[in-house]
Amino acid sequence: MKNTAAFNDGGEGDVAGLVREVQGRVGALADLLRGLDEEVVEGADATGAVVARVSGAGRLLGLTIDPRAMRDLDHGAMSAAIVGAIGAARGETGERLAKAMEEFAGSPPHGDPLAPYVQALLREE
User: Fold this and answer.
1) Is 28 left (phi over 0), alpha (psi -120 to 50) or beta?
2) What's domain 40-108's superfamily in CATH?
């Protein structure tokens, strides 16, 4: 990110190059989110009797319920098991997203790269 660094250091930089770099980062972020959305994540309730599958965006794709749970759990306990399994799967998607965003961000430049130029413009008025 040569142009971003130049602006951050207060030097002259290529604005068109800076825009291209930003567009590249936005495209990379869109690709990252699209890739996460295509993943399938599983989570189980505390007993392991119910397993939920969700997309990387958290959409429910399916449930697997152990036949014994169908026999042994009443409707309230079954509901709690299903909610627990879906919550576990969605929690895992959140953890994956947080890790991916942390890796994506790496060491982003601090501050606004155009701030010195905006300040100079404001002083001229």
Assistant:
1) alpha
2) Nucleoid-associated protein YbaB-like domain (3.30.1310.10)
